[in-house]
DNA sequence: ATGCGTGCAAACGATTTGCAGAGAA
DNA sequence: TTCTCTGCAAATCGTTTGCACGCAT
């Protein structure tokens, strides 16, 4: 008899993608990740990168931000809820936590809404880039 | 002699796009806007919709949010800064204002960042949809 | 009359998917 | 062996662009 269960197998590619994602400090596009892997002697198919990224995102193990035309991914070591402070110039990103998110629920409640999720992205210049444009 | 100046002509399509955008309560994709226009007896080319949307966005007359795979636009009547409370079920959206956004700057400052802009979208269920799923 | 704006369709870039073969369990 | 995962390439999807014509000025 057969067991009906969706299993997830461990493969070289999976680890490679995961590792490359960890190595990349900030957010990277699927394509760029693919380049890094290929260039780094880890021949992983582009489709596989997309599939892994998609899986990881769904599993909540990576953060995703949608930029015009493409999606960027970033390793999310902890499953904790947090937001991002992204440098518009160099793309570097910092994780930031909100002091309190109660006001979100409060405002939503005023409108009769039930909050399911929220997205917050803060864009600006990191210290280094701010210094350059001085 | 000729005058060298980029002029902007008033056309039926421009007005149509602008109007359709105003009528749409929440965020709409370029494609959907095109459908609305076409369906509403305003035969506007899809390319034109994109061009207008792009122009309006650049002129700061519309808000834009990048969602996975597509961009959504929304009329920005006033140049005022505000955020959105979007119903995940029916797509309706409410404008919401933050009680204070100082904490954003404060947190950014802790990381040495200069804040240029920020995006906040809250997703949930509007009163009507919440009632249905009770 | 002049030249910007439009429409159509081809071009594009990012992401997804079908299918046959490779490898994990 | 069995069945998931990978690779490749073709297929999608949203968006952009080249070109010839119409219309606003």
Percent range of helical residues of chain A? 25-40%
Strand proportion of chain A: 25-35%
Low-confidence segments of chain A, given as residue ranges, are none
What is the multimeric organization of the chains shown?
Answer: homodimer
The overall strand count of chain A is: 6
Major sheet of chain A: order of its strands? 1-3-2
Main structural class of chain A:
alpha+beta
Overall geometric form of chain A:
globular
Give the helix tally of chain A: 5
Task: Considering residues with a beta carbon less than 8 A from a beta carbon on another chain, report the largest interface and each chain's count.
Answer: A-B, 35 and 34 residues
Tell me, rounded to a whole number, the average pLDDT of chain A.
82
Task: Give the end-to-end Cα distance of chain A, rounded to a whole number of Å.
Answer: 70 Å
What topology does this entry show?
The structure is a homodimer of 134-residue chains.
Chain A: H1 12-23, E1 28-29, H2 30-39, H3 46-58, E2 62-67, E3 70-75, E4 83-87, E5 93-96, H4 102-110, E6 114-125, H5 127-132
Parallel strand pairs in A: 4-6
Antiparallel strand pairs in A: 1-3, 2-3, 4-5
The structure holds a DNA duplex (25 and 25 nucleotides).
How would you describe the overall organization of this protein?
The structure is a homodimer of 134-residue chains. Chain A is of the alpha+beta class and 134 residues long. The first copy, chain A, has helices spanning 12-23, 30-39, 46-58, 102-110, 127-132; strands at 28-29, 62-67, 70-75, 83-87, 93-96, 114-125. Chain A has 5 helices and 6 strands. In chain A, the strands form 2 sheets. The first copy, chain A, has a 3-stranded antiparallel sheet. Chain A has a 3-stranded mixed sheet with strand order 5-4-6. In chain A, β4 (83-87) and β5 form a beta hairpin. In chain A, α1 (12-23) packs across α2. The longest helix of chain A has 13 residues, at 46-58. The mean pLDDT of chain A is 82. Chain A binds a DNA duplex (25 and 25 nucleotides) through α1 and α3.
């Amino acid at each position: 008899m057969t067991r009906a269960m969706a299993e997830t197998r461990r493969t070289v590619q999976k680890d490679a993608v995961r590792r490359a994602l960890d190595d990349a400090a900030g957010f990277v596009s699927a394509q760029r990740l693919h380049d890094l892997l290929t260039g780094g002697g880890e021949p992983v198919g582009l489709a596989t990168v997309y599939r892994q990224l998609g899986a990881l995102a769904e599993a909540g193990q990576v953060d995703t931000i949608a930029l015009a035309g493409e999606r960027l991914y970033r390793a999310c070591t902890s499953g904790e809820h947090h937001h991002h402070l992204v440098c518009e110039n160099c793309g570097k990103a910092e994780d930031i936590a909100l002091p309190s998110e109660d006001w979100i629920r409060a405002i939503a409640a005023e409108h009769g809404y039930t909050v399911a999720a929220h997205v917050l992205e803060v864009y600006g210049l990191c210290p280094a880039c701010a210094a350059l444009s001085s």
